[in-house]
Design a protein that fits this description.
- Strands 2-3-4-1-5-8-7-6 form an eight-stranded mixed beta sheet.
- The protein is globular, with a radius of gyration of 14 Å.
- It is α+β, with helices and mostly antiparallel strands.
- The protein has three helices and eight strands; from the N terminus they run βαβββαβαβββ.
Length: about 110
C-alpha cells in the first residue's frame, strides 16, 4: 500500500476569514462544501472546517485523510496489520472512503477509487 497524499484537517472558528490565508499559502482555490452540519473548505493539502461543536465532532475525530490509489487493498492491508475498521468502505460524492483506527490509536480516513 502506498499513501499518495495526506490531507491535514484544521478546525477554524470563521471559515470565511480563514480561507484566503490558505489560498494564498497554497496557491490553490478553495472548494467549499457541507457535511453533517459542518461547513468545509478543501484548499491544497488542508481541509478546513467550522460549525457548532456537535456538527464538527465527526470531522474533528479523524486525524487526517490518507489518499490511496487502491482503497480496497489499503483497507485490507491496514486491517491485516491490526487496524480496526471504524467505518467500512462507502461511496461519497467524490470517490469512496473508509475510516480506520490504527493499532496505536490514531483514527484516519482513507479515500480512493
Amino acid at each position: 500500500m502506498a499513501i499518495d497524499s495526506v490531507v491535514v484537517r484544521q478546525r477554524v472558528e470563521d471559515l470565511d476569514a480563514a480561507v484566503p490565508f490558505y489560498e494564498k499559502l497554497t496557491g490553490s482555490a478553495a472548494s467549499r462544501f457541507s457535511f453533517a452540519g459542518a461547513t468545509l473548505a478543501s484548499v491544497g493539502p488542508f481541509l478546513l472546517f467550522a460549525g457548532p461543536d456537535e456538527a464538527v465532532q465527526r470531522v474533528a475525530g479523524v486525524a487526517a485523510t490518507l489518499v490511496v490509489a487502491d482503497l480496497d487493498a489499503a483497507v485490507e492491508e491496514a486491517g491485516g496489520g491490526g487496524a480496526e475498521i471504524v467505518m467500512s468502505i462507502q461511496p461519497t460524492p467524490n470517490g469512496r472512503r473508509a475510516v480506520l483506527r490504527h493499532p496505536h490509536g490514531g483514527v484516519f480516513e482513507y479515500v480512493g477509487p
